[in-house]
Amino acid sequence: MIEIENVHKSFGDLEVVKGVSLTVDKGEVVSIIGGSGSGKSTLLMCINGLEPIQKGSIRVDGIEVHDRATDLNRLRQKIGIVFQQWNAFPHLTVLENVMLAPRKVLGKSKQDAEALAVKQLEHVGLGDKLKAFPGKLSGGQQQRMAIARALAMSPDYMLFDEATSALDPQLVGEVLDTMRMLAEDGMTMVLVTHEIRFARDVSDRVAFFCNGRVHEIGPPDQVIGNPVQPETAAFLKSVK
Amino acid sequence: MFSTSLTVNDVLYLLEGAWVTVQLTAWSILLGTFAGLLFGLLRALLPRASLPLAWLLDVFRSVPLLIQFVLFNSLKSIVGLNLSAFAVGCIVLGIYAAAYFTEIVRGGVLAVPLSTRRASRSLGLSYGQDLRFIVLPIATRVAFPGWLNLVLGVMKDTALVMWIGIVELLRASQTIVTRIQEPLLVLCIAGLIYYVMSLVVARLGARLERRWQEND
Amino acid sequence: MFDYSFQWRPALRALPDMLAGAWVTFETAALSMIFGVLIALVLTVMRQAPNRLLRGVGNGWVSIARNTPSLFQIYILYFGLGSLGLHVSSWLALLAGITFNNAGYLAENFRGGLKAVPGTQMRAARSLGMSAFQAYRMIIVPQLLRIVFYPLTNQMVWAVLMTSLGVVVGLNNDLTGVTQEYNVKTFRTFEYFALAALLYYLIAKLIVGLARLLSWRLFRY
């Protein structure tokens, strides 16, 4: 379970997250929507401790993320994240990209790590690209590789930071399909996304972010289909 | 607590040496810039035909400058040319600078995207007009930092001409060291002069570059 | 047109000695590169340190190495240290001078290289649970190596060319030193130095060639 309580986050003088509280249960899929600069991506970075917070608390399975005593490296093993700019490691092959962390962080043997990586890559439909370097792949393929890379750590949670925003329109579908598959497998997921229809399809709950706060939250049919707040309605109208 | 036999005259002597360094640098860069510009354009626009030129210039970049001085100097006496040591220094350093500048110019011209050139030709500009009004102005900006580095490099490399008997800054400091036997002090002053000269050139260059950028 | 007859035979007879000198040249350059890279790494870290003194020393080193002639740097190590009672051999002064120079130039290259590896790579590595050290070793440094490989090769060629300055402080067993010894004995300046130039050229080409082979092997992406 991810418990976010009254979190504040600033960059210098600029406060981007202004007191957000949100709980994500095991097996739940929560989508965060909202305009750019509303603090949604930043919140995601705070969940696995890539960005420090100024106030409040974030607990993952009861472990305080922003406590100095917390071993962040261990905590991150159970929180996978997929970035907007996929961030493939360009000097490693697709297979090596996925194998690296299981071997070096989890200490698996080469054979085990390779078997695991091959399984994950086949799962996302890249079984024929094992020996290729990321530079030779399309953006969609690189993003699916990044998903496999995160999954190879057998995480309990997956965070998606606008995973499809940097892709060409015709490549968005393949990545969304992979994410949908994951949601159907029962993975706990937090998605920051601009794909409203997708969010409505896969989410258990949708949160609308506005000015660094959760402005409206509830089941997708309510928040997207019949929003209470005028800001939510305005935002939904603007993205359609 | 601090006594030295360094006199005002010695410092003036060092400054005279520095003036020789500046002159050598200026002449060699002048020569190197013109030759390098010509060669660089040839390399960029006629890559195939100018390949032997590239090989030749590569030799000047792969042989120590000191040896180039010695070789040219002895060749001069073999052929019986009546050139001063200063002229020999300028010519060798000039060719050396040209060898480097050629690559810088070539890089600058090749950095102009083909699409930009297509755009200018599509407006009806001739090959020469395209070169003069589009390619060269863009290439100049790309090549300028490299050229500036070259000026700084050549200024430092002028120190080697002492080997063929020119009294420039470093050689001047040597002469004084031999007389007053205070190498650390004298060398530090010489080093400081080099440092300041480099800094002045670098600052002027940076200012020029900034002014160009403001106009962009 | 000129009444000078070239005599190549004596020069060719000196070839074995000159080849031995070429080996000293290569060795000195290689050593100066090894030490230079190590010091440059330390300088790169120092220049990013929060401590002002460390930063000052790092920046000072780079700035002096880049803004004064390498011959001056060798001079000050040879004559300057000598006047402090620290007598170093001409070879050691040469090695130290080139190493000082290499370290300064390489530190600047490394800094540029670090900037060229996107910060998001560090993020991605850390998000997989890697420690900062693991991320540097397995993700950042391998990518940095590719970026600085070409400048590193160039610097090695430079180091070889710089070793020729040893003769100015009296070194007599490197390629230029050996050549000069023959020159003062025979006054066949052109022949001997032309041969030396050829050898330098070959060493430079050898280094560039080897580096190219190595980069094909190392950087497959």
TrEMBL record, chain A:
<dbReference type="InterPro" id="IPR050086">
    <property type="entry name" value="MetN_ABC_transporter-like"/>
</dbReference>
<dbReference type="Pfam" id="PF00005">
    <property type="entry name" value="ABC_tran"/>
</dbReference>
<keyword id="KW-0067">ATP-binding</keyword>
<dbReference type="GO" id="GO:0005524">
    <property type="term" value="F:ATP binding"/>
</dbReference>
<dbReference type="GO" id="GO:0015424">
    <property type="term" value="F:ABC-type amino acid transporter activity"/>
</dbReference>
<dbReference type="InterPro" id="IPR003593">
    <property type="entry name" value="AAA+_ATPase"/>
</dbReference>
<keyword id="KW-0997">Cell inner membrane</keyword>
<dbReference type="InterPro" id="IPR003439">
    <property type="entry name" value="ABC_transporter-like_ATP-bd"/>
</dbReference>
<comment type="similarity">
    <text>Belongs to the ABC transporter superfamily.</text>
</comment>
<keyword id="KW-0472">Membrane</keyword>
<dbReference type="InterPro" id="IPR027417">
    <property type="entry name" value="P-loop_NTPase"/>
</dbReference>
<keyword id="KW-0029">Amino-acid transport</keyword>
<keyword id="KW-1003">Cell membrane</keyword>
<dbReference type="GO" id="GO:0016887">
    <property type="term" value="F:ATP hydrolysis activity"/>
</dbReference>
<keyword id="KW-0813">Transport</keyword>
UniProtKB/TrEMBL annotation, chain B:
<dbReference type="InterPro" id="IPR010065">
    <property type="entry name" value="AA_ABC_transptr_permease_3TM"/>
</dbReference>
<keyword id="KW-0472">Membrane</keyword>
<dbReference type="InterPro" id="IPR000515">
    <property type="entry name" value="MetI-like"/>
</dbReference>
<comment type="similarity">
    <text>Belongs to the binding-protein-dependent transport system permease family. HisMQ subfamily.</text>
</comment>
<dbReference type="InterPro" id="IPR035906">
    <property type="entry name" value="MetI-like_sf"/>
</dbReference>
<dbReference type="InterPro" id="IPR043429">
    <property type="entry name" value="ArtM/GltK/GlnP/TcyL/YhdX-like"/>
</dbReference>
<dbReference type="GO" id="GO:0043190">
    <property type="term" value="C:ATP-binding cassette (ABC) transporter complex"/>
</dbReference>
<feature type="domain" description="ABC transmembrane type-1">
    <location>
        <begin position="18"/>
        <end position="205"/>
    </location>
</feature>
<keyword id="KW-0812">Transmembrane</keyword>
<feature type="transmembrane region" description="Helical">
    <location>
        <begin position="20"/>
        <end position="41"/>
    </location>
</feature>
<dbReference type="Pfam" id="PF00528">
    <property type="entry name" value="BPD_transp_1"/>
</dbReference>
<keyword id="KW-1133">Transmembrane helix</keyword>
<dbReference type="GO" id="GO:0015184">
    <property type="term" value="F:L-cystine transmembrane transporter activity"/>
</dbReference>
<keyword id="KW-0813">Transport</keyword>
<feature type="transmembrane region" description="Helical">
    <location>
        <begin position="78"/>
        <end position="102"/>
    </location>
</feature>
UniProtKB/TrEMBL annotation, chain C:
<feature type="transmembrane region" description="Helical">
    <location>
        <begin position="20"/>
        <end position="45"/>
    </location>
</feature>
<feature type="transmembrane region" description="Helical">
    <location>
        <begin position="128"/>
        <end position="149"/>
    </location>
</feature>
<protein>
    <submittedName>
        <fullName>Amino acid ABC transporter permease</fullName>
    </submittedName>
</protein>
<dbReference type="InterPro" id="IPR043429">
    <property type="entry name" value="ArtM/GltK/GlnP/TcyL/YhdX-like"/>
</dbReference>
<feature type="domain" description="ABC transmembrane type-1">
    <location>
        <begin position="18"/>
        <end position="211"/>
    </location>
</feature>
<keyword id="KW-0472">Membrane</keyword>
<keyword id="KW-0812">Transmembrane</keyword>
<keyword id="KW-1003">Cell membrane</keyword>
<feature type="transmembrane region" description="Helical">
    <location>
        <begin position="192"/>
        <end position="214"/>
    </location>
</feature>
<keyword id="KW-0813">Transport</keyword>
<dbReference type="InterPro" id="IPR010065">
    <property type="entry name" value="AA_ABC_transptr_permease_3TM"/>
</dbReference>
<dbReference type="Pfam" id="PF00528">
    <property type="entry name" value="BPD_transp_1"/>
</dbReference>
<feature type="transmembrane region" description="Helical">
    <location>
        <begin position="75"/>
        <end position="100"/>
    </location>
</feature>
<keyword id="KW-0029">Amino-acid transport</keyword>
<keyword id="KW-1133">Transmembrane helix</keyword>
